[in-house]
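Subject: for your reference before the review

Hello V.,

The reviewers asked for a structural picture of the protein, and I figured it would be easier to keep everything in one thread rather than splitting it across files. Below is the amino acid sequence we used in the manuscript, unchanged from the supplementary table.
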Amino acid sequence: MHLVTGATGLIGSFICRAMLKAGYSLRALRRKTSDMSLVKDIQDEIEWVEGDLLDIVDLEKHMQGVSGVIHSAAFISYDSRDEALMQKINVEGTANIVNVALKQNVSHFLHMSSVAAVGKKITDTLVDETHTITPDDNLTGYARSKWLAEVEVWRAVAEGLPAVVLNPSLVLGPGDLDKSSTQVFKYIWDEKRFYTTGTVNYVDVRDVAEVAVQAINQELTGERFIVSGGSVSYQQLFETIAKFFKKRPPNIKINASIIKGLSKLDRVRTLITQQKPLVTDELAQVARNSHTYNNQKVREALEVDFRPLNETIQWCCEELMKKEEKTYLKSPQ
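And here is what came back from the structure prediction:
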C-alpha cells in the first residue's frame, strides 16, 4: 500500500493512474473540501482518507500499514502575500510527513519537488542536478518554499529515510484551468494579447507520472532527478497552443522590465480592491528565464523518452476542449 498526497491535483492524479496501472494499491490523503473532478475516473479504485499535512496525528494514523509514500501535495503561488502559507504547507507539511515516514520505517519515499528548488543563476544556460541554491539567491517565494521543503527531505535521508526527489519543470496536462500550470491554456483560450521574451522548460504530466512509477519500482534513494522534456520560447509555446485551439496567438511582446512596471500599477489596484494581483514582481522574475534544465541524468538512469511538445499540446487541447460544455472552457464575454 502506498500513501499519496496531492492525489486530487494534476500531477498527483496522473501518478495515481500510472500506479494503479502498474498494479499498486493506493491510499490517498484528501481534505473535506478537495475537488475530486480530476480523479473521478479512478476515484473508486483508491482508498480515500481525510486529513491534513499539518496534523501529525492524522498522518500517523493514515500511514499505518503503508510501505511507500508519494508526496506531491504543494501550494503554488507567485503572489508574495502567499509566502507564509507556502512555507506552512510546503515546508512544514513536508517536514511532518518525512518525520512520520521515518518513525514508521516506510521502505521508500518519493518527494515531488520542482525545478524551482534546483534554482539557476542569471548567467546559466544549462542547469543540472548539481546546482545548489544559497540563501542569497534571488528566489520567488514559491521557489524558496520548495527548496526548504527539499532541505527537510535531505535531512530525513541523512537520518535514514530511503527517499528520491523529482524536480519537474512546467507540467503540461489537462487539469483545472484556474489552477497551477494549466492556466497557460486558459490564457490562450481567452486570446490574451501579450507574450514575454523568456524561455520556459516544460514536461508532459504523463511523463512525470511514468518517471515516478519507475523511480518507485527501482526503489531509488538519495538521488534527485530533473524531469523536463525540453525548453521553448514563451512565444512558441503560446503559438502552439493557439494552433490546436484554433485561437489567435498573443502578438504583443513585452519584456521583464515592462512586467515589473505593470506589477507596481497592479499593486495599487490590489490595495484598493483587495483582489488577487494579476501581475507580480515574481512573475517578472519568471519571465526573465533564458536557461534550459538538463534532463540527461533521468534519461540515462530510467531510460525515459520524453514526449515532443506538439504531441503534448495537441493532447492537452483536445482533452480540455472535451470539457468545454461541462465545466472549464468558457468563451470570453
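For the response letter, the relevant points are probably these. The chain has eleven helices and 14 strands. The longest helix spans residues 83-103.

Happy to draft the paragraph if you're swamped.

O.
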